[in-house]
Design goal:
Layout lengths: L1 H23 L17 H4 L3 E2 L3 E2 L12 H13 L15 E7 L1 H7 L13 H6 L9 E5 L16 H11 L9 E7 L15 H19 L5 E4 L17 H21 L21 E4 L31 H17 L4 H4 L15 H9 L2 E2 L20 E2 L1 H9 L3
Parallel strand pairs: 3-4, 3-5, 5-6, 6-7
Antiparallel strand pairs: 1-2, 8-9
Length: 411
């Protein structure tokens, strides 16, 4: 254990130094002429095949929507996120944490280049801080990502990164590991050399590392319910071998296969374990529930189906790390995802009057929740979501006052 920690610390220091050198070296210049690498984003590839072998789509069978059974579990877990005290017990005065885990690109897009507060205003946390639709009461957003911390530095619960996050990010903000309930992961391997379809391709190695990270997250954060993954941005402009194309593009397949491995394992009753991804059984507590966050890759200046492009100016001089505009672009994508996804909105979006299920709209679903829970609420610490009147905490009974709250705020 001690030897692994020493090795991890040394590796982290070397990677951080390399990242700093790449970021600061004045001789580096983006390869701005490579405005396309002639690859189709996997959300546009659909049922088509990359290299005539690997099906596209974010999820199985070439689709971009979460399969119904997997989605139902994700929605249930999203609604299960609740304020906890420092010991991880339900508390009306507690908090819950959305944590980022990852490398230099991750921290730049989530908060700041040096990973510390205050966050840059154009990043995800900077944008979220001033958005009135974000829950600024019970939600705590914490940046755990840091420069140089590639996938292998997060793949064991004994890795020093987790201690760093606990000691320098959570505790100073009056938070604990027991309050972390949602995680955003964006990771890659440093200087990959083998691409698909080779059996030793980096995409397979990254899939294995992400599986290890998912299990490590569950160990360090026992109350975590959801983990969202995001792949790399376009790297056709890269002028270094840190993580160029096609590895940035192929990192999406590592995430796709990881999530598919969990879906298939749970469909088999938890018994069929993928040999690369490893055990991802969320019912047995092996890993949290996994899904895509925003998918950010587009083929340079070739517009994606939703119009997304990556200009050379969206990246720093190494063509690998995002510039301010690139950070803003990812930050906006992640904020939109958190505010609108049925797996995030219930706990990320600020509560709306009458919105019993916290999905951002007051409709028949909220009305049915009131009707189905009519009467006296269960005693604490059990929750009673339909008890919304009078605000802010109700009165311990679901009755006509709650019904009128829904009707009066319909829409």
């Amino acid at each position: 254990m001690e030897m692994k920690n020493r090795t991890t610390l040394l590796s982290a220091a070397l990677l951080a130094a390399l990242n700093f050198a790449l970021l600061s070296a004045p001789s580096l210049a983006s390869n701005c002429n490579q405005t396309s690498v002639s690859k189709t984003p996997i959300n546009d590839l659909g049922a088509g095949l990359y290299l005539n072998q690997f099906q596209g789509g974010l999820y199985p069978n070439g689709v971009n929507d979460v399969p119904a059974a997997h989605a139902a579990v994700g929605v249930s877990r999203a609604h299960g996120i609740q304020p906890l005290n420092l010991q991880g017990q339900p508390s009306p005065t507690g908090r819950y944490v959305l944590l980022s885990i990852g490398m230099s690109n991750t921290t730049q897009e989530f908060c700041s280049q040096n990973s510390a507060l205050p966050c840059d205003p154009w990043t995800f946390m900077g944008q979220a801080a001033i958005n009135p639709n974000v829950n600024h009461d019970t939600l705590a957003i914490v940046n755990g990502a840091a420069g140089g911390q590639a996938a292998l530095s997060w793949d064991s619960p004994a890795d020093l990164n987790y201690d760093r996050v606990r000691d320098t990010r959570l505790i100073p903000q009056g938070l604990s590991e027991a309050q972390v309930q949602a995680v955003w992961v964006k990771e890659a391997n440093i200087s990959p050399t083998v691409s698909l379809p080779n059996a030793n391709a980096d995409a397979y190695a990254l899939e294995a590392s992400l599986g290890n990270i998912a299990r490590a997250i569950k160990v360090r954060y026992p109350n975590v319910k959801l983990v969202f993954f995001t792949s790399r941005i376009y790297a056709g402009y890269a002028s270094t071998n840190l993580n160029p194309e096609p590895y940035a593009y192929e990192s999406a397949f590592a995430i796709k296969w990881l999530i598919e491995a969990q879906i298939n394992q749970m469909a088999s009753g938890g018994t069929t374990i993928d040999p690369v991804a490893g055990d991802l059984n969320y019912d047995a507590g092996s890993a949290p529930w996994l899904a895509w966050g925003p998918y950010p890759w587009a083929d340079g200046l070739t517009p994606r189906s939703d119009g997304l492009i990556w200009q050379c100016a969206d990246l720093q001089s190494d063509g690998t790390h995002p510039s301010m505009s690139g950070e803003q672009k990812i930050g906006a994508m992640l904020l939109d995802f958190m505010l609108t996804s049925p797996f995030a909105a219930p706990w990320f979006h600020a509560p709306l009057p009458g919105d019993v299920n916290n999905d951002g709209v007051v409709n028949a679903d909220d009305l049915l929740m009131v009707i189905n829970h009519w009467g006296q609420c269960p005693p604490p610490p059990q929750s009673c979501p339909p008890d919304i009147a009078p605000p802010p905490d109700g009165n311990g009974v679901v009755n006509v006052d709650d019904l009128l709250m829904v009707i009066n705020h319909w829409g």
